[in-house]
Amino acid sequence: MASKAKRLGIENTVLRNSFTLIESYKSNKTNLNVLDIGSNFGYLASVWADSIAKKGKVLAFEPNRNLYNSISKTIKANTKFSTNFEVYNLAVGSKNEFIIINASNFSSNTQNMDTAIETYGIDMVTIDSFLNQEGINTIDLIKIDVDGIELEILKGAKNLLQQNKSIVIVETNDDSEIVDFFKNLEYSIFDMKLKPLGNSEMLPINIFCVPKTMKANVI
User: Fold this and answer.
1) Is residue 181 within 8 Å of residue 209, measured between CB atoms?
2) What is the 3-state secondary structure of the chain?
3) Assign residue 179 a region: left if phi > 0, alpha if psi is -120 to 50, beta otherwise?
4) Using CB atoms within 10 A of its CB, is residue 72 exposed (0-12), middle (13-18) or buried (19+)?
5) Per-residue pLDDT averaged across 116-127, rounded?
6) Alpha carbon of residue 178 to chain centroid
7) Whole-model pTM?
8) Residue 54 pLDDT exceeds 70
């Protein structure tokens, strides 16, 4: 229960910060395109689909088939999501390949997990190849929370991110290479309080990354 409460608290902070950044950096507030990578039960994706993507689209990726089925049921039970919320039972990474994952009721990972109850194969895609295949040119917001391979996912989305249009929320897992990745792409990086991340600062759970080419109204 404590772990669930902690996760919900973090997700609510992510939500609040995402709305603040959208309000500050995006002129259109309800027709945005969102990628939710590592969607879990789809809580964040559902809120975004009912707000900033109400006239746009949320594309959620969840490799755990139990969680994927849960999100699918949410979409089917809510007619308001019939046109703007889609979920894909795919893993996301730096290359297109078939992988083996270990899955529990609440998460999945390519590495061994003490809580794993089953192991199975699944297709992995890169964001760049997926968007190219789907003919999608613009993504306004990306959230990545995948328990350790965030950097690999970012590498597979480099073409998209070089367009400097996407706000990115990513779990760090104490990986400073993620910060370096965004610095090389000329992104401003903020902490959980949306304060600029200092060079010597301990990495927060999530960082919020905004292209320097985007000018804020207020932040």
Assistant:
1) no
2) CHHHHHHHHHHHHHHHHHHHHHHHHCCCCCCCEEEEECCCCCHHHHHHHCCCCCCCEEEEECCCHHHHHHHHHHHHHCHHHCCCEEEECCEECCCCEEEEEEECCCCEECCCCCCCCEEEEEEEECHHHHHHHHCCCCCCEEEECCCCCHHHHHHCCHHHHHCCCCEEEEECCCCHHHHHHHHHCCEEEECCCCCECCCCCCCCCEEEEEECCCCCCCC
3) alpha
4) middle
5) 85
6) 14
7) 0.91
8) yes
The answer to whether the CB of 22 falls within 8 A of the CB of 218 is: no
Confidence of residue 5 (pLDDT cuts 50, 70, 90): very low
pLDDT of residue 31 exceeding 50, the answer is: yes
